[in-house]
Amino acid sequence: MNAYPGLPEFDYLKPDTYAEASEFLVAHAGEARPFIGGTDLFVQMRDRVLRPKYLVDVKGLEGMDEISFDNSQGLTIGAAVNMNRLIAAPEVIEHYQILAEAAQSVASYQLRTRATIVGNICNASPAGDTIGASLLLDGMLNIYGGQGMRQEPLSTFFLGPGETILQTGDIVASIQFLLPPDGLKGKYIKLGRNKLSDLSIVGVTAVGYPDADTKSGLHFKLALASVAPVPLVVEQVGEILGSTPVTEETLKGAAEAAMEACTPIDDVRGSARYRKLMVRNLSLNALRDVWHKLRK
Fold first, then answer.
1. CA–CA gap between residue 99 and residue 186 (Å, rounded)
2. Which fold has domain 67-177?
3. ∠ Cα 276 196 2 (to 5°)
4. Least confident of 122-131, 175-184, 219-228, 246-255
5. Where are the beta strands (DSSP E) in the chain?
6. DSSP per-residue codes, 102-151
């Protein structure tokens, strides 16, 4: 039973501009936190892990609730766009199916009406379901800070569990993805303690697409969740499957490389040994699935 019946007291603010929000966060460093969906923040407040004095609601700021797409700029998803809306967006279904697939695995339908992909990323959990797809699609974050808006690649965003490059006053406005390579296929496999709503014990995201510059004619990428301090892209997978024709044996070799690359820990959801073995098995299944899709 939860020992705390509700949230601790806090003051609520809803600024009109990015500058106003950022300045308040800087002026009240350590006391104020930005929030959009609150699906992680409110749980931590309920459990008294966090006790901010001020909550700064940024979801009404310009562009936060917008999805835009064109062939030159790609897809831009505002930080306040909830996951159910993302999953149903025609441009996501057509061009970024792996992103919708990963978002579909997050919690329950009800929670996804509040949860956002940007919130999932900024929470910086190694178990984040949408982070692998976002990394493999070369996501770029648009961040407002003291010097105005800037872009940061997702590949250098994570520093450790719950830690990112964000500084006090920074507000992530959106995430942007360029148009994926032609013919890209993907697969996300999540292993949890139950089929719905659980954090991943292991998460595997695989994508592949035709590439005339590789010896195999294909380019593969693989990302892992819950098996390292930060979400992990296994570069060796692309090297193995690009340097020789793809067969069942080379897929097994790539899966072994994924297993060797990860550094999981023991916790209540699974041992390190179990996680490593599941990385091998699930990586093989995900890569095989993508390979079969590319051969159709």
1. 9
2. 3.30.465
3. 95
4. 122-131
5. 11-13, 32-35, 54-57, 67-70, 74-78, 140-145, 148-153, 158-160, 163-164, 171-177, 185-191, 202-210, 218-225, 232-233
6. HHHTSS-HHHHTT-BHHHHHHHT-TT-TTHHHHHHTT-EEEEEETTEEEE
Of the two residues 34 and 107, the one the predictor is more confident about is 34
Q: Pull the structure tokens for residue 4.
A: 């705390």
Which residue intervals of the chain bear CATH 3.30.465.10? 67-177
Phi and psi, residue 278, nearest 5° = -70, -35
Task: Note the pTM of the prediction, 2 decimals.
Answer: 0.93
Element (H, E) at 254: helix 248-261
CATH 3.30.43.10 residue window(s) in the chain: 11-57
pLDDT per position as a tens digit, 28-55: 999 999 999 888 898 899 999 999 999 9
Within its chain, how far is the Cα of 109 from the centroid? 18
pLDDT digits (tens, 9 = 90+) for 46-104: 999 999 999 999 999 999 999 999 988 899 999 999 999 999 999 999 999 999 999 99
Q: Are 181 and 96 in contact (CB under 8 A)?
A: no
For 11-57, CATH gives 3.30.43.10
Residue 268 is classified by DSSP as T
Domain range 185-295, CATH class: alpha beta
DSSP state of 23: H
**Angle at which helices 235-243 and 248-261 pack, to 10 degrees?**
160
The label of the residue with tokens 């595997």 reads 204
Q: CA of 128: how far to CAs of 92, 162, 227, 283, in Å?
A: 19, 11, 11, 17
